[in-house]
Amino acid sequence: MGKQFVRIARWGVAAVVLAFVARSISLNWNELQGQPVQWTIRPVPVVLSLLLVWLMYVNLIGAWRAVLGGWGERLTPLEAARIWTVSSLGKYVPGKVWAVAGMALMAREAGVSVWAATASAIILQAIAVGTGVLAAFAGGVGLLDAVRPGLATAFRLGAIGVAGILSLLFYPPVLRRLLLLAGLPASTATPPAGVVWRATVANLLAWVGYGLAFWLLARGLVPQVSLSPGLAIAAFAASYVAGLLALFAPGGLIVREGLLVALLQGTTGLGVAALLAVASRIALTVTEIGAAVPFLLIRVEKPSVD
Fold this sequence. Notes:
Blueprint: H1 2-33, H2 43-70, H3 77-88, H4 98-109, H5 114-147, H6 151-168, H7 172-181, H8 193-221, H9 229-245, H10 255-268, H11 270-297
Helix pairs in contact: 1-11, 2-3, 2-5, 2-8, 2-11, 3-4, 3-11, 4-5, 5-6, 5-8, 5-9, 8-9, 8-11, 9-10, 10-11
C-alpha cells in the first residue's frame, strides 16, 4: 500500500507540474500569435536551435555527475538524465525550491545521499549564475552598452565582482560555508577543486550554446532581422540569470522576457524583440518537456553501477 501511495503521489505531482507547463505554453503561444510582426518558421535553423539546447543539457548533466562523483556518489548517464530533466520541471511551479527538492528526492531513490544531491544542486546553481554574468560580459558587453548606455561599465564591474566570488568556490572553507548557509550538515565535504573547475567550464560552454541556439531561433523566425551571435549570447545570458535570481517568478517568467526585450529592442525593434522573447520561452519549454517526457512515460529501473 505504501509503494502504491508513493506511486500515485508521484503521478499526482507530475500532473500538477505538467498542468503549469501546459498553461505556460498556451499563454506564450497566444501572446506570440498576437505579436504585430511578420514572422515565419524556417525548419532547419529552428530544429538546430532545439538540438543545440539538448546538447547543452547533456553537457550540464555530465557536470552534475562529475560533482556527485567528487563525493564518491555514482549515477549512470541514463539515470542522471532522468533525474536532471524531470526535476528541472519543478521550476514551473511557483517557488524556487521545487526543482532542488525534486532532484534530492529522486536522487535518494536512485541510491544517492540527499545531502550530496542537494549540495551539488546548490553548487551548480551558484556556478550557473556566476558564469552567466561572465558569458553576458564576454558575449558582447560593447553591444549591450550600445543598446543601453552605461551597461558596459556596470557589466565590467559586475564581471570583476562575480569572477572574484566565483573563484572563492574553489576555496574549501568558503564553499563549506555556502553549504552550511544552505542548511546542510557541518560534516558535508566539499568536492575536489578539479570537479568545480569542470562544472565551471561546462556552464560557460552551456551559456555560449544557449546563446547560439537563441541566435538560430531568431534566424529561423525573423531572418530579415540582423542579430549578431555576440548580442544573442549576451542578452540571453543576462536575461536568464535575471530570471534565476527572481525568486518570486516561476521559471523566471516575465522577468526574463522583460529584460530580453529591453536588451534587444534597440537592435531589432520592439515588436521583434517581444516576439523573440516569447518564442524563446516556448522553445525552452519545448526542449525541457521533450527531454523529460520520455522518462515520465517509460519507467527506468535502478541500474547497477560499476
